[in-house]
Every structure is written in structure tokens, then in C-alpha cells.
Records
---
Amino acid sequence: MSDAPIEPQAFQGGVRVVDIGDVRVARGLTRRHRAHCRHLHLVYDDSERRVWCEDCESEVEPFDAFRGLVEQMDGHVKRLQRRERELAEAESFAARSRAVKALDEVWRSKRLTPLCPHCSEALLPEDMTRGLAFMDRDLARGQRARRGSKKR
């Protein structure tokens, strides 16, 4: 232990948080070590036509600054595309879910059964448990579109 006296601290207003970067600046150093800085806070100086990092206070090559901007924008675009895919998937799942809930609600009633929207034949739960025939959605939509254009 050191022999330095203990300085009493006033905690009545709460604990004071000290930014280490401010301490480094007070000692005449930069906020961050130059070797560890990723140059995330760039300053573009129009009058001097230079780019420098606000954290480590070193000059940054224009190509490196441009590359940083492009990488950041690319990350934002990829995040937006991923979000768009997730939303489309959630919307399609919700549409299926609503359709199944509507069918289930009608089947739970004691006297009613849903009808096929095309041929108006009754759809019974037993029809679904014996196995279903499947068809590609795009093919089914194409057939409906062709039938609709023939009727006109």
C-alpha cells in the first residue's frame, strides 16, 4: 500500500464518473492510442482539405476514410435487406395463420362448415386428415389468373 493520504469524496450528489479520455487529454495525450483507434469519429475539414480522427487526433488517408464510409453504408444496407426479408416472412406466416384460424373457428361451430371459394363444395375436417394433394402456389395463382382472363 502507498503512504499517500486518502482524499475524502463527497457522494451526496451521486458518484462522479470520470471519462478516461478527458484524463488523457488533461495530461497532454490524445483520447485514444493511435495504434488501437479504428477512426470511427472522422472530421472532414473543408478549409484545410484534410480528414482527421477526432479520437486519436491523427490524420487519416482519404481512401481509408472513404472505405470506412462505404463499409458503414454497406452494413446499413445489409441490415435493412435482412429486416425486409424478416418482415416479408412474418407477413406471409401471419396470412397463413389467419386463414387457418378462420377455418378452425368455422369447424369448431356445431353446425357450420366452410365452403371452397371456387366450387362451393363443403370442406370437412375429415377431408384434410385423409391426406391432401399439394400444388405449387405460383402455379395455382397462374391458373387462377388464366381462368379469370378467359371469363372476360
---
Amino acid sequence: MKVLIADDDDYTREGLVEAIDWKSFGVHEVLQVEDGAKALRIATAQRPEIVITDIRMPKLNGIEFAEQFVAVCPDSKLLFMSGYMDVAYLKSAIQLSAVDYVEKPIKLPEMENAIRKTVHYIAERKAQHVLLDQKMDLERVKLANALRTQSHPADEFRCKAQEIGYPVHASYVCLIVTQFNKGMLVDAVHIQNYWEQHNLATIAEQLDYDRLLLVVALPRPDEEMVRALAEKLCREYSELRIAAGQVVAGLEEVSRSFREAALAMERVFFKPDLCYLTYDPVNYAPQGPRSDIYPEFYRLLKQEPEGLINWMETFCNRVLVKGDQARERVLSMCVTFANALFKERNGVLIRMGKMVQIQDVEKQLNECRTMLEVKAHMLELCHAYQEEFTRISPYSGLIRNVINYISDHCSDVDLDVREIADHVHLSTAHLGVLFKQETGTTIKQYLNDYRLELAKRLILEEHFKVIDISKMSGYASAGYFAKVFKAATGVTPVEYRKKFSQ
């Protein structure tokens, strides 16, 4: 807080500067001037929160100075002091909203009380302004939400707009602003201020953690101006993506512009390099998947798995080039494909390394921000499936059935050779002989190795606790798991994580 002391008496000014503990009042700078004209120049430039001024000064007296000063700095407060108890002066001070009047000769306790009163008054005014600003901001957000959802009659829109000073006779456009890469979110207030700096009234609503809706009022329906300003903002912040609906003529049409902007933003999923996206009704009629997509995928999955990788790459490339699918529909198809891969070969979970549950796969697919990310994810799944298929393909159908059963049920601590043999309707002895002949190992050893390999993968995922890993891998307890793990690897699970997770 700044204070300006204006008095032609050097002794009074310097005495106040030295005698008062200004820091205790939150004052970090005290300015001094000796006449009214200079006081006006300094106060206009420095904008002090408090001006302590003598009423009788050369060039401009205190009242003349104050009359001009309050017009320039209406939020600053005046504290008058004078040895002349003139009623006319007092009336003028009251009209100028002086907080207090201190009589000369100055008594330090009286001056300190007057300053304290002034500081308290300023603090209350600031708090009131903050509350009013917060209330106004909330009303602006409410109006943006109401326009987006079309939840009020048109008359109510206009009334609410008038209450907050938003134009009711203009053209409007909805813009959705998003941050392409997480962790670099540009301040929403800064984005809104950018449009207002170009004399465009704007209200905003945060749609979610990284999408901001702007409803911009335009003096005329100028789409090229909107484009130019949006592209300029994107050049300043390269990670921003802005989608625009069509310019509409009235408040009641804003919801349509919002829906169009939301559709336009869908294109970022397919065209992440575009910074400004507009709605074009010709290009926004999302197509459904071909009727043969799923049968073709399942045929390859069952009969020609070696062709699955090429098929998936072709499918993703086609979706990328056309860009005529809704994002949700594409993700839904890919989640269906992923489920089928895991159902057919549960061993893919181990091959994937970092993904050990189908829920993880679905979550990661839905978090993909572009089709290119989805493509990379799906190709990784298909490669893992191909590896798992190649690993077990030399075996007979019976042994593959056993291996898949172990993959599906390895987390069951009670899984044993008898249960596996019952599953394939053979005796444990007969199955054991057949399994050893084809794989070179016993069923029990294969199960133990499989559980250990799964545990190693899970350990490298730092968000899994050892007790959870032991359960997911089919061990009876965390203590038993740690003992078996160290016997097999020479290190504890914790040591293994420290060694290999870097």
C-alpha cells in the first residue's frame, strides 16, 4: 500500500514519515510533496491508496487538489488535516468522501487512529469489490451455461445479459478452446481477456479440466475476423486448439453454435495439427462402421492371426484419412477389438508388459487424444497377440487349450493340475505325459513359471503393492510370494523393482 503526504510544512511531513510505524499498517512506500499541483501530478502517476493532505497549500489547496484527484483515482481515500476549523472546508471534505479530518497541531495518537480507520475502510471496500466481482463472474458463467443448454426462455436470456452488461443485440459465435498436451493449460482468464482486448464482449464456462467454452458477441457477423484472432492466439500458444461453430444472429441460437463447435472439435482427434477448426455441415455427418468390419476382424482372429497386424494398420489408416467417424464410435470399436484379443489369448496381458487387465486397456484407449495414439496402441496389442499366438501355435489344440486355461485362471490360488485335467476331460497322469511331450516341462512347472513371469511384469508397475501382486499372480500370501520370488530371482520383489523399473 502507498501513502502520499501533501503539506507545505516540511516539519509536519517529515515528522509523520519518521514517527509512524507505517509497516504495521501495511504501508510499504510513503511519498512526500509540498504543494497541491505537485501532489496532483505525483498522485495521478503513483495511484496511492491513501492521501494525507493539508487543506491549505500553495498552487492548489487541499480541496482543489482533492476535487481533481478523486475524479482520476476514485478508489483512493483522502485524509484531511488543517489548523483552520472552517465549516466550509469540513463540508467540502465530507462531500469528497474524506475518511477523517485531523486537526493541527497533529497529535500522533489521533493521526494513527485516523490512518487505522482509513486502512480498515479500504480493506472493507476491497473485500466488497472482490465479492461483487465473484458474484458477477458467477452470473457470467451461469449465463454461458444457460445459453449452451438453452435452459431458459429467450426473454430470460436477454434479462440476464442486461444485468451483467453482456450485449443483447449482436451476433454470437461459440468457441471451444482446448489444450492439446496435458500439463500446459493456459490460464482461462487470459484466454477470455484476449478476446475482450479486441473489444469483443465474452462470457465463458469451463466445460471440463481442459476445455473452455467462450461465447463471443460480435458487432457484425464476421467469421474471418474470428478466424484471424483465433489463429493469432494459437500462434502465441502452439498447444491450443480452437473449434468454432457458425455465427448466429440471436442469444436463443447460441446453443446451436455450441453444438457445431463441439462437432468441429472432434476433428482434432483425426487432424491434431489443425489449430483452428470450423463447422461445415457437409463434413459433419459421421458414418457408421462397415457392416463387414467385425466379421472380418473375428475371421482373422480365429483363422489367420498372422494377417491381423496388417489388417489393423489398414483399418486405422482408413479411419485417419476419412475422418468421418465419431471419436466415441472409433474408440468403442477398438475396445471391442481389444476385448476379443484378450479373450482369445489371455497371455497377451503378459506380452503387453505394462497392461495387465482389460480395464487398463480400455482406460488407456479412452485417454488417447488422437487417432494416431489409438493406432499405435492397437498395433502394440496386435503384435503382442501375434507373439503369443506364435509361442503356442506349434502345440496341438489340446495343449493350447491347457495353456489358455492357465492364462485365464492363474490368479486362482487353488488352481492345480487336477482342475486343469478336469477341464480337458483327461486324467492328470495322461495329461501330464502329453503336456511334457509337447512342451518339455510339466504342467506344475509351467504354471509356476507363468505366475512368476506375470509377477515380474506387475512389479514393474509401481502403482501395484506387493500384496496385490501376490493375489493377482495366484500366491497364497505376500510372505510366501516374496519367499518364492527371491528363491527364483535372487532378489526380493522390492529389490527387483528398484533394479529394473528405472
---
Amino acid sequence: MDFGIIGPVLAFGGIGFIVAWAVIPLIRKNAAQRGGEQRSFHQTHKTPVPRLGGIALAAAFAVLALASAVLLDWVIIKPTEWVIIFGALAMFALGLWDDIRPLGARIKLVGQILIAVTVYFCGLRIENFTNPFTNIIEPTGLSGFFATVFWLVAMTNLINLIDGIDGLAGGVAFMLMCLLAYVGLNHQDFCFLVSLGMAGALLAFIYHNFPPAKIYMGDGGAYFLGFLIGLLTIQSSHKGTVAAALIAPVFALALPIVDVAWAIVRRGLKGLPIFRPDRHHIHHHLVASGRSHRRTVLILYAFTVAFTLMAFAVFWSQGRLVPILFGFLFLMVLVAARSLGFVQDWFGVGRSLGTTTQLRKETRYALALNRWLELEAERCKTLEELWRGFVFVVWKLGFADVKLALQDGEIAWSAKETPGGEVRRQRHELHVGNVTAIEFTADATALSPQVFEQLAELAAEAWTKSVLRWQTVNQGSIRLEPEWAAPDFAASWEARKGFPLQA
């Protein structure tokens, strides 16, 4: 059916925008405390921000799907398009569940795979592959199963992993929805209408999510958007635009893909789980270099727009320019990495190769202590007890002292023998209760720069997670007092085995 161009853009873009715009204030007003609390050390907002913005996006999608079915007289809606509707909402439910009650990385990954497998057996799958160099279309056969599941799970997690700074994931998803709407322009079917509508919904969301954010999309929104984009690209690939539908998004997401791939390598070298968050993504480097969150997002938008234009070129050329564009893509990634200061991080990881064994060993030890402290938080009746437990962890990791900056003072612990020579210091901003920052000090001869940086970050994360765990168990307020003392650990094991020691 041909509805023209302006009509669908105004109608469905407007529906998506209006629904999201109307629902977001309701979420902000009525968000449960769990939805708005700080969930991890890697969040940097000073005040709680609701994490349930994905509800607005899912609500807009549900209304858009219904409007599309009505407009297309229901019978024109294909079975695979019903799969898109229920598959996307199922993935949203998984993410929303995690926003309300954390599930753990393994459970979430299993859930994502199960939903992707269900989608495949319901008929939505990658059936053909276009060789970008020969432009020959070949059937995927059994490999299509693995390609479909990998594509859907990868897209789901990619959008989630770039959701580390206000406005970034929403902006990238908006550009991808515009690309998908353009891909479906000649067909003007369900995918075209939904892409237009979700672009409108994302505009409304970005208004509230742009720095400083008033709402997050949460895992529910990120999973939903990533999975929906993956579903729409597969559905669009069945219309003779295989290269545009499956290869073009790779161009549009080039910078996030490189960032995530490098994060996996970096975490592997350091002995960290690959899905464990850290503060070493591109946007973290930009903020650490002195740029504001708003300027950082605008810079990343600019690069994403450039990559998205290359994705449009893939579609315009029907894949014929892919080899040439891949060359330009590689050059642009190098330019982006250099201009964003990311090359230094590459060299930093390269320098750490010589200390990889020791670094991985220290990381495993720190993770074990972190786990112990989080379990200990469930047994502590007061925060003062938990503070003594944290000091034990800091002592075992080899730090000379630790300070917690409070809104009305500070609380600190120092080893008996503080280093008299060169020391290393690292400070992390925190916003948990009345704690505003945490600072670690170590003897420069005791810990290498790579090991010290890694252990300081893990120790700061351990404190945040254990305090939040204590709050969940005890339903108490997080408030530390400057006059709290710290245990005085002796060097012998005899003094340690009686832990926890009293101040």
C-alpha cells in the first residue's frame, strides 16, 4: 500500500513521539525506589535517576504495532512481523526484570539466547548471505541458525554496552531507526512504519535523557532497542536488500563495535569477566580528558553521523561499494581513535602485556575479596562493621591508606608503616549516601602502575556494591560518620585470624 511519504512520517513519527512524551513524566513521578537508585560503581550521577525509561519506549512500540496492524488491515501483517512484536516485547520484559531485580550476567545471556532461538524457530531468520566482494547471494543453510542467534544477541548487547553515558544509546538507536526507515521506504510496510514511529519515540526520550539525564532507558530499554533493531534488519533483508539491511548497521555502529571489541580484549588481558563494566570506554576517556558529558555525546554523535552516512551509501550502492567503504571505515576508525585519545589506551594495554600474568593473578584475588565483602555486607548490622570489613580488603590488597570523602568530613585508615618515598594515588568520585569520593594510596615500589590502577578500581567498586547490598538487606540509610575508627591490623597471621577485629 502506498501512503505517500509525508503522511506516514507525520502520523507514525508523531504517534511514537506523543506516546513516549506522555509516558516518561509518569515514570519519573512514580518510579519505584529500586528503579531510581544507583546500581553500580560505574554510575556517576549525584542524584538518583529512574532506570525505567524503557517502559515508555515499549509502550510507544505497542501502540505503533497496533496502529500499523489497523492501517494495514491486519491481514497484511505477516507471521514474521508478529514474531517481531512479541519477540521485542519479550526481550524488553527480560531487561525490565533485571532493572527491578538484578538477574546476573549469565542468566541474562541465557535468556537472550532462548528468546533469539525462539525467534529463529518461529520463522524469522537469516536465510541468505551476500558476499560484499562478489555480490553473490548464497543460502546460509544450518549456519543461518547460528548467524541469526549471534546477530540478535550481539545487537541486543551492543546497544546495552554503549548505554554508558547520557544520550548516547538513544541517539545511536535513533540514527539506526532512520536508516531502517529509509531501507523500507519503497515498501512502506510494517517495518517502515514501526521504524518511523520508534524514531519519533526516541526523539522524545533523548529530550529527557540528554545530559544531564532525567531518566535512563535501563536494561529494559537497551535490550528492547537492540533486539528490535536486529529483528527489523533481518526482516528487511528478505526484501532483496540484504547488503543494506545486514551490512549497513555494521557501518553505523562501527565506533561502538570497535569500542566493545577492544573492551573484551582489555578485560581478557586483565583477568576480568568480559561482561563486567569498567570506566575505560571511549566516552569515559573523553570525560576524563576534561570534556563535559554534553560535549562528549555531541562528539560521538558527529562520528556516528559520519558512519551512518557510509551506511546509507551501502544501501544506495546495493552493496557494490562495500569493499571501498570498508577501507574508508578503517581509516575513519583510526582517525577517531587518534582524535579521541583512544590510541593511548591501546598502547597502555600493549605495555601491560609484559605484566599480564601478575595482573590477572592480582585481579582474581581482588575479585575473591570483593565477593567476600559483598557477602559480609549481608551479615553486618551496621555500616561501621562494614567499614572495618572494607579496611581488611584494602589492607589485603596492599594499599597504604584509604580515605572516604564525606559531605561533612572524611573517614580514613592508614597502615602502621606508611610509605616515605614515592607513592601512587587514585581517586574515584562516588555518590552513595553521604560518600562523595574514595581515594587510595600505595607505595610505588609495592604495586606497578597497571596493578595499582586495576586494584584501586576494583576496591572502589567493592565498596559501592557492598554498601548497596547492606542497604538492601537492612533497609537503612547510607550515612558514615567521620569519627569512626578503623581496625589496626598487625603484620602476623595470628592477628588476622580473629577478624573481624574491633576498633
---
Amino acid sequence: MSKTRLEAFSDGVIAIIITIMVLELHAPHGADWSALRPAVPSLLAYVLSFVFLGIYWNNHHHLLQATERINGVTLWANLHLLFWLSLIPFVTSWMGENHYESVPTAVYGFVMLMCAVAFTILIRTILAAQHGLDSRLAAAVGDDRKGKLSLLLYAAAVPLAFLRPAITDVLLVVVALIWFVPDSRIESRLQGVPEHERVAPRA
């Protein structure tokens, strides 16, 4: 099954998510610097979410570059990822407007956790659809230490929001910093590989 429509659809959805998220930002009522002060929590939440969406877009792009074929299960796994990503504007607005209170922060962390889980599932379904453990993608992913560490930090961040939301915020920023530089494992595996060999469908 061709991956072209999957790429195009996913790019479009992520672009819409970013658009919705920025539309949630409201201009301050005032023309001086002090008028910006109430909007700072929402702006910071927006920046964090934008970084996360950028990370997912980058890694999704690299993932599909190394993918040779997909199947119906892959399509559903990709939709599962897009579902959780589509909730980011809602939880971003809720957390920002309520100045990082415990419940909104915990829900934000939970959505980020589920995005990471969904991306992990997508990787596994793509691996199963092509060559499993013998594929170039499998070699690039390896034991996925960064992915496992991220899941651990997300899982810890959710309950910690009820103890001290600031700890959750720090953990989320740490995860963003871990992934801020695009994951080079897949890209390095594709260096020097002709384009027709990267994407050639298999019977």
C-alpha cells in the first residue's frame, strides 16, 4: 500500500492542529507591556506544545522516509496518533488559561504520554508491515532508549502534577529538550541510499 496519502494526510492534520492552537491565543486588552502579563502562561504553554508538535512532525517524516510499505493496521495506528495530537490545542488552552493548576497540567501530561504511546505503536506496526527485525528501520530504531526514557518521564509527570505542577512542567520541558534535535538514527541509515531503494514497494 502506498504511503503517499498517509504522509499528505498526516502533514495536513498537524498543520491544522497548529493553526487551531494559535487561534486559541487571544490578544491582550491594552497597549503596554503590563497587558501581556496575564497572557504569559498561555504563551508559554503554546510554545511548549508547538515544540512538541514540531518534534512529532520531524520524527514522523523521518519514520516514513525509512518506510517501504504500509498496511491497514498502519493506517489505524497513524489515525490513533493523530487523535491524541489533535487534543493538544484543547489541553494547551486549558492548562495555560488556568495557570498550570494540577488537574489541567495532569491532563496535559496524560495527553503527551498517550501521544508517545501512539507513536511507539505506529513504529511497531510499520516494522511488522515490512521486514520486522531485519529492516533498515529496525536497525535505526534499535532498543529506542530515548523513546523508553520519554515514556517513563511522561508517566511520572502525570501523578506528580497533583503534588506540584511545576515538577510536571520541568519533566515535560526535559522531554522536549531530549527530542528537540531531530532524531538522527533513521536519517543516518538513509545517508547514501538511493531514493528508489528507500521507497520501492515490495510485492
